[in-house]
Specification:
2 domains; Arc Repressor Mutant, subunit A; two-stranded antiparallel sheet; Nonspecific Lipid-transfer Protein, Chain A
């Protein structure tokens, strides 16, 4: 029996929410993803078939709705009123993980694809200079399954922010060389950009004005404001 066999509302909610991958799928929807491939970019280790299954289950549970794309194949996914009520639950889980998880930055958890995907959708486009700015990231010290993803390009041009794993041939304006763990800690608010630069874990090269402006373009994680207790792992 798949369910818990209880009428308790905690059990009923858990039957929908507590399936493996479901909280992360909801996280992606809350972050603005509406299409299958965009959701999967934020949850890259889930198979396409299992993601399809989880989306169907969420739709059957009244948490999301979907409709065919206006052009092309695929569907567009949106949260229902019931789904929106999970926002506080997901935020609470994220705050708890930020505050108490002791293995947050273990090498096996340093998925640079997820890190860069989050960086690209949290750029303060209002602070970007006019025209196109290309930032190349050269990363090291990531999880074993991410070894092929050492180099990334952010193509910044208001109001669009594109993330590329292949060189599109644009001139690079700023180069960021970073230890993946240090960059993840900066992103999560557990290390300041200045501290990372002074330690040598992060290095930024390019025209002085762009190098100085670059940290202000990063809005950081939604959970970066959550502080860890001094005695937490």
């Amino acid at each position: 029996m798949k369910g818990y066999g209880q009428f308790c509302p905690v059990a009923m909610a858990a039957e929908i929410f507590a399936e493996r991958w479901t909280p992360l799928i909801l996280r992606e929807l809350f972050c603005g993803a509406h299409r299958f491939n965009d959701i999967r970019r934020g949850v890259p280790l889930i198979s396409r078939s299992l993601l399809s299954q989880r989306l169907r289950e969420l739709e059957d549970g009244g948490v999301i709705s979907s409709r065919p794309l206006a052009a092309g194949r695929g569907r567009e996914y949106s949260l229902t009123k019931a789904g929106e009520e999970f926002r506080d639950v997901v935020d609470g889980l994220g705050a708890w993980g930020q505050r108490w998880a002791s293995n947050q930055f273990d090498p096996d958890n340093l998925d640079v694809g997820v890190l860069m995907w989050n960086v690209h959708r949290r750029i303060d486009v209002e602070r970007l200079p006019p025209g196109r700015t290309v930032v190349r990231f050269d990363l090291r010290g990531m999880a074993a399954h991410c070894k092929a993803m050492r180099t990334w390009w952010l193509v910044l041009q208001r109001p669009e922010v594109d993330l590329c794993l292949k060189d599109r041939g644009f001139d690079v304006d700023v180069t960021v060389s970073a230890d993946a763990g240090a960059l993840a800690r900066v992103w999560m608010g557990q290390l300041t950009f200045g501290q990372a630069l002074r330690s040598g874990a992060v290095r930024v090269e390019g025209p002085r004005a762009l190098v100085q402006a670059f940290p202000a373009w990063l809005l950081l994680s939604h959970f970066a404001h959550v502080a860890r207790p001094a005695h937490a792992g």
